[in-house]
C-alpha cells in the first residue's frame, strides 16, 4: 500500500507542475481490492500531500480512515460501472475546461481535426455540468461508461480512468495536450478536419490498439 500511496503523491505533483490543478483542486484514487479504495484528502493542496493524508474508503462510501475528497462519489460511480478501472484521476486542465465555457453545446472535443485524439482516446465527450460534490457528478457519467475512459466535465474539469495510475494520468495529459493544440488552431484561424476516409481508418486502427488510453 505504501508504494501505491507514493505513486498517487507522485502523480498529484505532476498534475500540479503541469498546471492541471491549483491548490486543493482535483482528486486521485486507486482501487486496492473489491471493497477498499485509496483517495486523496479534502482541503489539502495536491503539491503538498503526504502519505498519511491519503484516505481509505469503501465502494459503498464508508470512511475507513482519513478525510476523503468531497468528490469521492464521482470516483465510486466509475468503479461501480467499470470493472477494469483501477485508478481515477480528476483534474482541472485549463484548455479543456475553456472549450466547455466557450462552446457550451459542443458534444465532444473535435476529434476529426487531430489524429492523436482518435488513436489515444477514440473520442473525448463532454459530460453535462453537475454541482461539485454532488452525486450527480457521478450519475452524469453513466451515459459514457464504460465506453469512454477520458471525459471533460463541463465548466469544471476532466476525468480519466484506467487500469493503472499511469494510464489514468497519461489520459489527463492527452486531454489537455489535445485541447491546447485545438485551442491554438482556433486562435490561428479556425479548425480544419481530416478527410472522412482517414478518420474512419484511424478509428479502425484505434480498435486494433485496444481500449486503453495512450
Reconstruct the topology from this structure.
Layout: H1 2-17, E1 27-31, E2 36-39, E3 55-58, E4 63-65, H2 72-81, E5 87-91, H3 94-102, H4 115-121, E6 126-127, H5 136-139, E7 150-153, E8 157-162, H6 165-188, H7 196-209
Helix fraction, binned, reads 25-40%
- Low-confidence runs of at least 5 consecutive residues: none
What's the total number of strands? Answer: 8
Evaluate the radius of gyration.
17 Å
Shape category: globular
- Arithmetic mean of pLDDT: 96
Q: Strand content of the residues, in percent?
A: 15-25%
Structural write-up:
By secondary structure, the protein is α+β, with helices and mostly antiparallel strands. It has one domain (2-209): L-fuculose-1-phosphate Aldolase (3-Layer(aba) Sandwich), CATH 3.40.225.10. Helices cover 39% and strands 15% of the residues. The protein has seven helices and eight strands; from the N terminus they run H-E-E-E-E-H-E-H-H-E-H-E-E-H-H. The chain has helices at residues 2-17, 72-81, 94-102, 115-121, 136-139, 165-188, 196-209; strands at residues 27-31, 36-39, 55-58, 63-65, 87-91, 126-127, 150-153, 157-162. It has an eight-stranded mixed β-sheet with strand order 4-3-2-1-5-8-7-6, with helices on both faces. Strand 3 and strand 4 form a beta hairpin. The protein is globular. The mean pLDDT is 96.
